[in-house]
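INFO batch 0412 | record 1 of 1 | parsing
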Amino acid sequence: MKKTYWWKMILVSIFFFFGMPLFVLAKSYIYESIDVAIDIGKDTTISIRETQTFQFSGEFHKGYREIDLKGTDTIRDIVVYDEEGKIFLYQKNLSQEYVPGLEGKYSYQKSGNLMRIWWFYDAQDETKTFTLGYTAVGALSFFDDKDELYWNILTDYDVAIASSTVRVSLPEESEMSSLKIKEYLEGGESSFSEILDGKTALARATQLQPGADFTVALGFPREIVDRGAYWKDFFSLYWGYILGVFIWLGAIVFCSIYWYMSEKHNKGRGTIIAEYEPPHHLPPAIGEVIVKEKISPKTWASTIVDLAVRGHIKIEEEPVQAWMKYLIFLPGIIGAFFVGQIIFSIMPTEDAFLKALALGVFVGIGVISFTKDKNKGRFERKDYKLFLVENTTKDSLRPFEKAFLSVLFSGRAGVFSTREIKKESETKRQEMYKKFQDLQKSFFDEVAQLGFHNHSLKKESYGKIGLIVFLFVLFFFSFFMTFLGAWYFLTASILGAFALISYFMWFEVKLTPEGNEEREKWLGFKEFLYRTERYRVQNLTPDMFYTFLPYAMIFGIEKEWAKRFEGIVVNSPDWHTSPTISNSGSSSFVSSGSAGAFSAGAFSASLSSSFSSAFASSSGSSGGASGGGGSAGGGGGGGGGGAS
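INFO prediction complete | emitting tokens
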């Protein structure tokens, strides 16, 4: 018995010493009431006084209130009173954590879309009342026939509230029949609202649960408040944003006019006249930069064809991989399979799935067999091998062409394969990417030396990168400069607009007067390629097709150029071989994509795809007080609060 007694004493002692602090530290509170007085001002602002009565069980030192700014322009003039009407002392940058000595002080801070208010006091096992006063700007809604206040009294309180009474007052008397009030309650026992007289309305809710929403909507005649006063407040609040927007618009308009005057208005001859040869016999890559002021994947594809025509490269079409041929059957099989599934689902049997599969295979093969020529090019993308011809004179090459050949065939024993480059290691692809970047920069400098542009495209690319980075930094810092508000937006707008104008004036590439004339000549040459039948069609020769083909490629009109040679027998070039025909073969429509013919479109797509693959891992509503719909929590204000 004594042993049992001692064990009981030990258990009681453990419970006493370890459980007692839980009873000592346990505390709770509820709201006996949250009563709100709303005075609508003639200037459209609303003055709000929230009287919150807490019933504390335990020791408390801090109260807080979070007001949702949605539906308002701002909340200002924030004060906190104790139950005797004495104003708490405001302290900027006041800690949100209680320490002894902070009693009687309060502060507030905007955080995102919330205004957070907190104050400190001493309370233990008692009832205390605090009053929060503040002014909301932009909380009213203006309509054609009325004005309206749609205000959330509370939405996110964590504890129960016994009752909430709201009194709304207008700045002047009106006919009672012209006033309409409606309350919305979610999470409470009961609510009602009424018009007391020509300038006062009342709403009340009882037994509100934690998280309850209580909203009041009051509609009144539009002449009660001065709408013009609102716009004065609006400008005083948002003047920095308004001026910033005008600065941005002004900068955009200026840049547009400047671009038009420098790029479109200043022309050479002002007339596009057909040219029958490439101007100054410049290579197609340079012509593309003169016309478009940029390069594209077709730049290097056309350069390869041009070098092949001039005898520096040979192009060999690689056989299509066997497994690729069967892809043409896939769409028909899948489509027919689903059709079969639908058919057999109407007639369910145990082997319906197998029947549907068999039907899909049968119909799919039949459909693809009928349309395989149409789908062949879609699934059988060609690959090419390029062979460097060593026994040619390199003196005729321009510096960028020599550099291009060096990059293309470096470390490849004079053979470049669009298929093999996709299989190379990431390190090699990074090296090639860097070499092409250097090639591009030197190419831009070389074009600039011709005198057709005011400076190199390389400088423009640096300026563009700098502009994007600078604007990103301005946007990034906006998240940390919210306390500056309109001032930061105005300053950022001035700096951003200046950067934009600077880019257009000093970094964007513009054609010189000679460059404008040169561009018109290139456009005239494009016109000749596109509409040959109108310009000396009788003088077309088979050799001319391949000579001018790379130029048609940079303009994206290689198909139109090929059509000019319909009916003319054009032999396959000696610099191109195909596994389907011999070099001596001929075609009357060389670029059509027929077997063995050299297709500029397919070649350009294959090369662009190969380069992209090589660089992929290296590049680096109104409320319802006036007859409309509404709900609790749908207006301005609201939020929650509490104590700790």
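INFO post-check: The first strand starts at residue 28 and ends at 40.
INFO record closed
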